[in-house]
Amino acid sequence: MVRVLIAEGNHILRKGLYSILEEGEGIEVVAVANNRSEMYQYLATLEPSVVLFDYLSNSFLMDDISNIKERYPSTQIVGITDTRHKTHISGALKMGVSGHVLKVCSPKEICDAVVHVSEGKRFYCGKILDVLGDELDENGDVSCEPVSLSMREIEIIKEIASGASNKQIASKLFLSAHTVMTHRKNIMSKLGVNNTAGLVIYAVKENLIQPNRFLFDKE
What we know:
elongated
């Protein structure tokens, strides 16, 4: 039996994932954690072979992936999220996730992911493969090539994250608005983001700006 720990912050989703896995062949759900404290407690006491983990849930941190792999190297992790954002998914795989599915995947696909990673294999649903594209090597691993940004690109990220327009950035850095737009497109392509919010998140994570300077409205 594959012993699975579900780590999910949403009550309804926890119930749904529990029902899906309990109906899966050769799978036993040993515990369900709704926060980080419970997750680490169950990892230490129950020694699950797989964690089905929504690392983007409000009750958890993405860094928990690498922490789990460091503390419990024999435990495999399957990421399961709502988002198919390339930066998040690629980052999760680099931190140690062995498989990744989405919450819109079929029950069979979710169960297959759990079983496959328990056997030491990689498993990504089709939508995840589409997102990652050529980042996966022939072994199904994500390339660890670092993102290379020039000093000019870092300057522009800081200005964008601070709320400056292309025209304002051009004036401050003595560039044309067209050049700023070209830099912006190149930066977004390198980082795998498609909007300003993604650039702001990157700037915060890399300590290029202070997050307490900004107020993000809930959509």
